[in-house]
Amino acid sequence: MKFARIAITGVDGEEARLVVVQPEKRRVIDLATAWRLRLERRGATREAARRLATALFPASMSAAIALGEPFVEAAAEASAAPAEEAVRPLEGLRWLPPLDPPLIRDFTAFEQHVRNMAARQGGTIFPEFYQRPPYFKINPLGMIAPEAEVPWPHYTRHLDYELEIGLVIGKPGRNLLPEEALSHLFGVTILNDFSARDVQGPEMSSGFGPAKGKDFATALGPWIATCDEVALYDLSMVARVNGEEWSRGSTASLTWKIEELVAYAACGETLWPGELLGSGTVGTGSGAEHGRSLQPGDLVELEVSGLGLLRNRIGQPEPPGWLPKPRQASAAS
Amino acid sequence: MKFARIAITGVDGEEARLVVVQPEKRRVIDLATAWRLRLERRGATREAARRLATALFPASMSAAIALGEPFVEAAAEASAAPAEEAVRPLEGLRWLPPLDPPLIRDFTAFEQHVRNMAARQGGTIFPEFYQRPPYFKINPLGMIAPEAEVPWPHYTRHLDYELEIGLVIGKPGRNLLPEEALSHLFGVTILNDFSARDVQGPEMSSGFGPAKGKDFATALGPWIATCDEVALYDLSMVARVNGEEWSRGSTASLTWKIEELVAYAACGETLWPGELLGSGTVGTGSGAEHGRSLQPGDLVELEVSGLGLLRNRIGQPEPPGWLPKPRQASAAS
Questions:
Q1: Where residue A332 falls among pLDDT bands split at 50, 70, 90?
Q2: Conformation bin of residue A307: beta by default, left when phi > 0, alpha when psi is -120 to 50
Q3: Inter-chain contact B208–A135, Cβ cutoff 8 Å?
Q4: A191: helix, coil or strand?
Q5: Mean pLDDT throughout B32-43?
Q6: Residue B333 has pLDDT above 70, yes or no
Q7: Residues B172, B175, B180, B186: is their CA dihedral positive or negative?
Q8: Rounded to an integer, what distance in angstroms lies between the CA atom of residue B16 and that of residue B267?
Q9: Contact A212 B133 (CB under 8 A)
Q10: Is a pLDDT exceeding 50 seen at residue B80?
Q11: Which residues of B touch A332 (CB under 8 A)?
């Protein structure tokens, strides 16, 4: 199945609805509505049916995934022969990020990307890449939706995209082995880790890792495909800027395997449903690898086989804003 | 006021309750119970009173803080002359982390700590420290409670503590100026950023920042003191290990001021209620600065004026576990 979230306008403002996407039928099915109607047909009152349906299909995808098999089974039932009232055409939908993850770890798992970046800077791959799959954490509150405009923060002049896949955790786990890790995976989606290269560089050289260089915007979607729908190591990945192809790769070239990423994330930490792991950028999957950068108004499209098309337009730069005033080292240092 | 969370055993298992702590009276007040009783005295049915009270004082402190002034006002009313049924003695409480933050940024804002760490490694302070307040993000799902045992991950042999204060965001904000930033602060607590030094080092040298070196455990609490209760720049900070003082400092020595940390966090990103900012370690506030490390069974106590005592015992090392197998560089690199 393919899961997504859309926004509708309710009596108290915008609300998120979980949907199953059927791209071949050019439609989505509103799961809470479909389930409510099923319950009503079996004698539930409108109010009681609504209560149960929104508990099963809440606004939060992470909360839904945390229900485990009962959620997926009910979604399959609800979307099998949906009532007309629960169906919406693909056209004109207001997409939301398909997931509201409590945590995002963004790995770097493709050697070719790391090599290309190092070569651009006149260096070689940092040795730690070959020891453990490196990752940093992205602000999950900075997630933006498919079709949303990418904010251009006032502190950067060099915006870039990153073509990645996003791995969604399905059930709790701790200290997992790679051979059991894939059973903890719920599904896969497209991730665009927008980056401010001129800020990311100093942040990484400080040792603290990316922060303002990454957290202003991360796009996700349009949907999460469950693992049974995709060949994890045969996903073709393409990026286009204003219609021109800049990047092409495949999950076949992953240096660190998906089961290793999940197992490593679970080392000494408990993974929770709805957590998101980024694969890191596929080789050629960013402008920086080609010496190119994005401009205001650019249209960035990421396409992955079976996962749809994640499209975002780059916004206009924010007006100049406050930044910290540099300090002098104190006399003692 | 001083806010905390405790665990009680309900009919469906453990649940979190928001409390106001009155250390001078050696008691806490269960806010939902106190509010329910007030409503019942004014004619509400038990069920209706419970519904409203748990909506106002939910299990999530972040959700409560997001209610803004109505939450703080109701808490003040509820704890002013509480019914006996809502009062619990301090002794024997099962504390929870006082906050369930959606995001933790951990800054490094004390020059003396950075200088001490650099000196131990035979180096000097990294120049970026003086340009912007550096920070990394901690896994908020790895939070542990006051009095909880600190898990010792299988991948480390060198555990350390870090004596910090935690700053709790009270209301949304974006691109703030320092002079308005403090009005976005809800309160302050004690933070112990437990660290695996032998893992943190390679992670920071890779440029990706701390991950497994920090995310296995972060202790917080015991309570959050609202800003009106504390002199932000005159908090004395002490750490003891097995009763012996290892660290002593004060927020008076902050190089990057609290309003700068909040404003910088809000640069190009929206701050949300319940987010947590760590001050970073005060000078002398870790074992590493003294060439010392923790041992299994050690008792670590952090004490900050007005914020109470945050105490955790170090657990036994986990049995050996899986770690990624290092890779060879491919022929092309």
A1: low
A2: alpha
A3: yes
A4: strand
A5: 98
A6: no
A7: positive
A8: 33
A9: no
A10: yes
A11: 112, 115
Backbone angles phi, psi at A100, to 5 degrees: -115, 75
Contact A192, A163 (CB under 8 A): yes
Query: Considering chain A, what is the average pLDDT of its residues?
Result: 97
User: What is residue A277's predicted lDDT score, i.e. its pLDDT?
Assistant: 98
In CATH, B104-317 is 3.40.980.10: no
pTM of the model: 0.97
What average pLDDT score do residues A209-222 get?
98
By Cβ distance, the residue of B203, B208, B267 closest to A212 is B267
Closest CA–CA distance from residue A72 to any residue of chain B (Å): 24
Indicate the domain borders of chain A.
Answer: 2-96, 104-317
A88 membership: H or E segment, kind and range: strand A87-89
Q: What is the DSSP letter of B126?
A: -
- For residue A331, the model assigns a pLDDT of 75
Give residue-wise pLDDT tens across range A98-156: 999 999 999 999 999 999 999 998 999 999 999 999 999 999 999 999 999 999 999 99
Contacts of residue A269, Cβ cutoff 8 Å, sequence gap at least 6: A174, B139, B141, B142, B212, B215, B216
Q: Which chain B residues touch A202 with a CB distance below 8 Å?
A: 128, 131
DSSP-derived secondary structure letter, A81: S
A50-78 tens-digit pLDDT = 999 999 999 999 999 999 999 999 999 99
Nearest CA among A6, A2, A59 for reference residue A190: A2
Name the residue facing A207 among B126, B211, B269 (closest C-beta).
B126
Which residues in chain B are closer than 8 Å to A259, comparing Cβ atoms?
none
List CB contacts of A116: < 8 A, sequence separation 6 or more: A283, A284, A289
Inter-chain residue contact A203 with B134, CB threshold 8 Å: yes
Contact B263 A322 (CB under 8 A): yes
The whole-angstrom distance between A81's CA and the closest CA on chain B is 35
Q: Mind telling me how many Å the CA of A9 is from chain B's nearest CA?
A: 22
> ipTM score here?
0.97
Task: Quickly list H helices, B42-89.
Answer: 46-56, 61-65, 69-80
Burial class (CB in 10 A: 0-12, 13-18, 19+), A156: buried
What is the model's pLDDT at position A152? 98
| CB proximity list for A121: less than 8 A, separation 6 or greater | none
**Residue A162 DSSP one-character state:** B
Tell me which of A117, A156, A322 to substitute to probe the interface with B (most B C-beta atoms closer than 10 Å): A322
- pLDDT tens-digit series, residues A272-299: 999 999 999 999 999 999 999 999 999 9
In order of A91, A196, A216, A318, B26, the CA distances from A155 in angstroms are 36, 9, 11, 9, 49
> Chain B: residue nearest A202 by CA?
B128
| Chain mean position to CA A135 | 15
Can you list the alpha helix ranges (DSSP code H) found in chain B? 31-41, 46-56, 61-65, 69-80, 111-120, 178-181, 197-205, 258-265
Cβ pair B333:A216 closer than 8 A:
no
**Least CB-CB distance to B328: which of A130, A154, A206?**
A130
Render pLDDT for B219-252 as a digit per residue (tens, 0 to 9).
Answer: 999 999 999 999 999 999 999 999 999 999 999 9
